[in-house]
Amino acid sequence: MKKNFVQKIANWGNYPVVTKNIRTADTLSAIRSFVEQHNEVIARGNGRCYGDAALAENIFSTARLNKFINFDRINGIIECESGVLLADVLDLIIKQGYFLYVTPGTKFITVGGAIASDVHGKNHHSEGCFSDYLISFKLMIEDGSVHNCSESENAQLFWSTIGGMGLTGIILSAVFKLRNIETAYIRQESIKAENLDQIFSLFEESDSWTYNVAWIDCLQTGNRIGRSILMRGEHATRNEIDAKKRETPYVIKERLLPSVPGYLPSVLLNRFTVKLFNKLYYAQQRQKKTENIVDYERFFFPLDAVGNWNRIYGKKGFIQYQMVIPKEHGRQGMQEILSAIAESGNGSFLAVLKLFGKNNPFAYNSFPMEGYTLALDFKVNLQLPTLVAQLDTIVEKYGGRIYLTKDSMSKNSLTNYLRNVENPKFVSLQHKRILNSTITSQTTHGTNSKRNRQ
Amino acid sequence: MIVLGSNSEVAQAFVEEVLQRDGNLEKLYLFTSEPELAHKFAQHLQVKYLQESEIVMLDLTSELNFSRFERVESSLLFCAVGYLGMGSEEGLYDTKNTTRVLDINFSRLIPLLTHFAEKMERRRGGTMIVLSSVAGDRGRQSNFIYGSAKAGLTAYLSGLRNYMHHRRVHIMTVKPGFMRTKMTEGLPLNPVLTVTPSRAAANIYTAYRNKRNVIYVLPVWRLIMFVIKNIPEFIFVKLKL
Ligand SMILES: Cc1cc2nc3c(=O)[nH]c(=O)nc-3n(C[C@H](O)[C@H](O)[C@H](O)COP(=O)(O)OP(=O)(O)OC[C@H]3O[C@@H](n4cnc5c(N)ncnc54)[C@H](O)[C@@H]3O)c2cc1C
Fold it and tell me: pTM of the prediction?
């Protein structure tokens, strides 16, 4: 059998699927020679970004950079290689009474991916992004040399790499801070909202809660637009959990993990099934408000319980559309976005609304800005580009932007916000797509204006 | 535990499996020819399990001096030493390649295994788990130098098992089939016949606890190799395997 590193590969949305050169290595010299020998290189963690961000002509997978380096159990500081999954970090730290400060909606992402996307969680309004707890990292740049980066050392490289989508080099390892917890449980409250006005007021009322997130039924119309359930949570203290759990407060019941066996026929997900799902989901909670104690897996990673759930969207795949709209236009913008979606009939199975707090001005490549953010999954079909263009227009009108780690279709003016990352060596398919469409739109714009003048 | 070929992903996954299931090991010796990776792994074990380990340099392509291993002793040995070398097309007439493949998989490995077997015999107990290969079940045109070395290893393990059976030392032969590892990176592997290192390690651990003698990491390989072994030679010779 001949070796062939060229393989079919896609990220979490299974769109686009490309055939590229993908390699992995664990020694510094092997990584260096991969970087030296190839142009158009990008690092790839666990491929949990949805679109084309972790794809390039030559992909370096960090799968083998999966070792822990140091754990200061007294001060809660951990150092590991960039391919270590947050799931592995949690397995190690929870029993020591620690948790991650910031975690996204899946634990199956790598530390490198968390830095490169500067991920946020349900606590952005109160605690910011992953980078707010990052102490330093080691980065291999285009000539194969390795640099230690922190706020005080190689500061420009540090800040441009955070949220920089892999375009500055390959992160090899990182050091970051952990938070203390008394238990592995969350005290949660779920509150129903009939419409957008109610959910926005709920968000504002809940500002003092550490974790806030809302699930929206995005197929509702009229005065039911924005019908949703807000979930807010705090790490439970020892006194808040029942006596039996208190004996082993850091151990939770293991869940059985079912898995989607293969790609499901995509007709299964249509306007009617999505509507039905949303109806049932909303109806299952009877009272306006419920309070309970849930384990951290159920609170943070409900989707991880079903392996390969991305396959329910069928072979053609799906995209996630996540945008942020500045706070002052949040209500208006969301109203228009949700109306456009309901009208298109292109239902989203999963629609999540969050309120971002102030951004860290140093982390200029991070996606979050103060405002409302909505994430929606859409099955890829022929009408989708039209819907995306429509939504993009609304986001642009209100001065918002698109989350690069989810993007594979959006307008370049909403996705070209990265600074200090231009590098001939590290180029992703996403970055090329955005640059190319910038050039094309400039030239068409140019000819237009010429024509106008004539 | 003694780990020969400690940078192999299966070996590392097996060590973690043992640490997770049985708790800490009194002594852990990591034999390696690549100290950078072994140090990384040792540190990882220290952070994750508070497990101390000792790194022992081993280069099977040079003369071995067993006196260096005087202190190294344990009742469990895991050997993942293996070297694929070049396939027949590129490597058959390359003497250097042939020697290297034979040295690492067989001729220099056997004395080393015997050295540790003797220690186990003296302590009247222990288990040796050694990775051989399905390639040793029958010589095929694509990689029969590697296959013949592994066939030799399999035969050695079979004899050693028989010999040691009466001396309370258990020898387990593992035939992995395809695994997603460094060795097979870039090869077009059939996913149904391929295991990840951690899956393989879990299966090997179960077999070790059940005191199995010879295992295929994925049971389907037993069937495949049964068929391949039983094809009459006059037909086999014409096949392109
Ligand atoms: C179910 C689900 C829920 C999610 N929820 C959230 C959420 O709540 N908040 C949020 O912020 N995100 C969320 N995400 C997105 C996810 O957190 C990010 O896409 C994350 O970056 C994925 O990490 P990864 O390790 O899979 O990286 P990949 O997807 O492989 O790569 C993502 C980007 O990081 C770069 N990169 C990866 N590793 C390195 C490295 N070592 N060095 C340099 N660059 C690197 C890649 O080049 C690429 O640009 C979610 C994703 C899923 C599937």
Answer: 0.94
